Amino acid sequence: MTSRLLCRLERHTPLSAEERHALDLAATNTVRRFNARDTLLKQGAPADRIFIVLDGLACRYKLLADGRRQISEFMLPGDLCDIRTFTVPRMDHAIAALSPVDVAVLSMEAVQRLTAMPGLARALARNSILHQSILREWLTNIGKRTAFERIAHLLCEISERLRIVGLMSGDTCDLPITQSDLGDVLALSSVHVNRMLMELRRSGLATFHNRRLVIHDPAALRRVAGFDPDYLHLDSLSAAA
Amino acid sequence: MTSRLLCRLERHTPLSAEERHALDLAATNTVRRFNARDTLLKQGAPADRIFIVLDGLACRYKLLADGRRQISEFMLPGDLCDIRTFTVPRMDHAIAALSPVDVAVLSMEAVQRLTAMPGLARALARNSILHQSILREWLTNIGKRTAFERIAHLLCEISERLRIVGLMSGDTCDLPITQSDLGDVLALSSVHVNRMLMELRRSGLATFHNRRLVIHDPAALRRVAGFDPDYLHLDSLSAAA
DNA sequence: CGAGCCCTTGAAACTCGTCAATGATCGTGG
DNA sequence: CCACGATCATTGACGAGTTTCAAGGGCTCG
């Protein structure tokens, strides 16, 4: 159940057999399935649980008073929430499923048991930093890149993140989201997302069709996106104290 | 030296005299002054130190290859960096001074000594979560709000954050940044920032002139901004386990 | 008193959003 | 198995918001 999570965590921090086992136990204990568009945790609700995404796609988002929605994080298989959300009383954003998802639900007590183990504590801290780093890159993406660059950049990121957990077959993957979802991530209208996807297709860089992404020319896609994967900290087992 | 930091931390987590003292010691130990535009930590540099801003204004930013700059965080007096940056080998963004700043520089060892104390560990975790929460709000701000709303929202946020550390006199404060800096925060051109500031002034909501911000009508400013301060977790000493 | 940076304003161009209509795809039930 | 409805993708025309370019004016500091 936790193989994808382990792919992610053990990339930087080796875990003991005991730690792996504890994680596996926690993740198989309370698995829940949600349908696409289901809300996992409402904005304003008590922040009393966190999730591990086992399969499918979820997201964090904020809603403005008039219904405008901004997605601030993709939660891909193997991703887990920041364990420090427990230090805050209530959610200032929501978590929802973009496709059908299987998630493990962890209580504060479960997390405390896990973080008592030093290797896991390190791995989870590192996980949180990664997501913060991605968030900063998204801000830059939306703030400073053109619509075309933005989409290209997001597709580069997604493919790298999915590759880590073994969900890329060469340069193609399933991506069970709509163009409107992409728009809410990239701060673009769904119409304009469509136009840019068409241009990506015409220029032979990538095709996103029927919930399936094919990257035809990864190098060129990275180039037009200005994609520098540093922020994903992909380097395995780097030296860090 | 650390009174503003203590304002921030003790808002949610009471600290023992010993903890306060340890913090004060750490912060007075290695104080450095930087000029406006100085770089405190370069993108790509080892992430081997963190900062407490004692006075002045700093920021985190990312630079694209062609020079476009996106500021992703304001570091106001009393703010301190996420302690988990040590889990990552190198900086994926830069830290620079926007105005002359006094900062305390903390090594990993110094931080480890501090986080050995449970109250401080809690307070620092909570601090990190707050900044992540602000980052998410900024993403929403840039992604989903109009230029006018965006500026109004940022001014609301800044005034609330400065108020906590005692740097608001009624509804006015010093804000030693340029309109071009504001543009790099808000993902707007400096020209358009200027136009929106003019409109804010004309409509009697707020005036930003000569590095000085005056909010004439806080309620109206919040209204046009759609500002909901929940994400700043201002509520003192809320119940959180 | 001058130099440099910052602010201010206008005009023109462009990117992207909105509106609207058509077509494709998928799941559901007759 | 096909028909239907709903959701999603696609395309065009038009308009709004924002950027860029350019020039002038003001403030501040040496």
Question: Can you tell me about this structure?
Answer:
Two copies of one chain form a homodimer. The first copy, chain A, has eight helices and ten strands. With about 240 residues, chain A is an alpha+beta fold. In chain A, the strands form three sheets. Chain A has a four-stranded antiparallel sheet with strand order 2-6-4-5. In chain A, strands 1-7-3 form a three-stranded antiparallel sheet. In chain A, α5 crosses α8 and α6 crosses α7. The longest helix of chain A is centred in the middle third of the chain and has 27 residues. Chain A is globular, with a radius of gyration of 18 Å. Chain A starts with a helix and ends in a 16-residue tail after the last helix. The mean pLDDT of chain A is about 95. Chains A and B meet through β5 and α4 of A and β5 and α4 of B. Chain A binds a DNA duplex (30 and 30 nucleotides) through α7.
Itemize the secondary structure elements and their pairings.
2 copies of one chain form a homodimer.
Chain A: H1 3-9, H2 17-29, E1 31-34, E2 39-41, E3 49-55, E4 58-63, E5 69-75, E6 94-97, E7 101-107, H3 108-115, H4 118-144, H5 147-164, E8 172-174, H6 179-186, H7 190-202, E9 206-209, E10 212-215, H8 218-225
Antiparallel strand pairs in A: 1-7, 2-6, 3-7, 4-5, 4-6, 8-10, 9-10
Helix pairs in contact in A: 5-7, 5-8, 6-7
The first copy, chain A, binds a DNA duplex (30 and 30 nucleotides) through helix 7.
Quick overview:
2 copies of one chain form a homodimer. In chain A, 42% of the residues lie in helices and 20% in strands.
List its salient traits.
42% helix; 241 residues; 10 strands; 8 helices; four-stranded antiparallel sheet; homodimer; DNA-binding; three-stranded antiparallel sheet; alpha+beta; globular
